[in-house]
């Protein structure tokens, strides 16, 4: 059974940092790309970033470039999302997801999803 478990969300002030974790089980993570998506209240789901199974290829949506960094620990099958210089518009539920197609931020390509973790950026 495939499971993706996110953790690390919370409340942070503008300009602050958070690190989200996504631990994958039940799949060979070497063959799956992991993506992070977010959904703000009243808005659709947005692809934020993704990393290939090898960890060698990453992709970011323009609005987070230079602020967010995705990385992968192969030993623990965990993908991290380091978020710096957070802005109120980053407030959303963040989801991680897995797909067999690397380099895509199209949510329809993703087969497995976590339950999400809330990130709130507010003073």
Description:
This protein has strands spanning 3-7, 10-12, 18-25, 33-39, 45-51, 58-60, 68-73, 78-83, 92-99, 112-113, 117-121. The mean pLDDT is 96. It starts with a strand and ends with a strand. The protein contains no helices and 11 strands. Strand 7 and strand 8 form a beta hairpin. The strands form 2 sheets. Strands 2, 4, 5, 6, 9, 10 and 11 form a 7-stranded mixed sheet that branches. Strands 1-3-8-7 form a 4-stranded antiparallel sheet, with no helix packed on it. 0% of the residues lie in helices and 49% in strands. With 123 residues, it is mainly β.
List the defining traits of the structure above.
123 residues, mainly beta, 7-stranded mixed beta sheet, 4-stranded antiparallel beta sheet, 11 strands, globular
What secondary-structure arrangement, pairings included, does this model have?
Elements: E1 3-7, E2 10-12, E3 18-25, E4 33-39, E5 45-51, E6 58-60, E7 68-73, E8 78-83, E9 92-99, E10 112-113, E11 117-121
Parallel strand pairs: 2-11
Antiparallel strand pairs: 1-3, 3-8, 4-5, 4-9, 5-6, 7-8, 9-10, 9-11
Residue-averaged pLDDT: 96
Biggest sheet details: 7 strands, mixed
Strand content: over 45%
- N-to-C series of helices and strands: EEEEEEEEEEE
Give the N-to-C terminal Cα separation.
40 Å
- Low-pLDDT parts are none
Find the structural class using helix and strand composition: mainly beta
Q: How many alpha or pi helices?
A: 0
Short overview:
With 123 residues, this protein is mainly beta. It has strands at 3-7, 10-12, 18-25, 33-39, 45-51, 58-60, 68-73, 78-83, 92-99, 112-113, 117-121. A hairpin with a 5-residue loop joins strand 4 and strand 5.
């Amino acid at each position: 059974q495939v499971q993706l478990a996110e953790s690390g969300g919370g409340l942070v002030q503008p300009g602050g940092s958070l690190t989200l974790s996504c631990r994958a089980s039940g799949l060979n993570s070497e063959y799956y790309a992991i993506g992070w998506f977010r959904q703000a209240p009243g808005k659709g789901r947005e692809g934020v970033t993704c990393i290939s199974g090898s960890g060698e290829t990453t992709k970011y949506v323009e609005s987070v470039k230079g602020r967010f960094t995705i990385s992968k620990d192969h030993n623990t099958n965990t993908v991290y999302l380091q978020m710096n210089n957070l802005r109120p518009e980053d407030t959303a539920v963040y989801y991680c997801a897995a797909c067999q197609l690397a380099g895509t931020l199209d949510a329809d390509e993703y087969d497995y999803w976590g339950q999400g973790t809330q990130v709130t950026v507010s003073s």
